[in-house]
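[Meeting: bench + compute handoff]

Bench side (C.D.) handed over the final construct sequence. Compute side (W.E.) agreed to return the predicted structure before the next meeting so the bench team could plan truncations. Sequence as handed over:
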Amino acid sequence: MGDGKKHEAKNDPSFGRNLLWMSTLGINLVLSSAVGVVIGLYLDKWLKTQPVMTILFFLVGTFAGFRQIYREIRKLGSEEEKQHERNK
């Protein structure tokens, strides 16, 4: 009986768009952290400062990833607010 709503949600085009959007947020966080680690590793090798730069750039990359998530969520909130205002 409750399967109807689940089936409707899977066929809704906005469901797929939202699922894709959520997965890109996770990918963004992982990639920005990984880029930070790679930069840190190369700098550590070049400056012979193991593991200082790796840790520092990992933290910078992670911060950048969370910042991007925050910005995307705020953007989504403002878009929903505009949509809600148009529907009034």
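W.E. noted at the follow-up: Helices lie at 3-11, 13-47, 52-87. C.D. will use this when planning the next construct.
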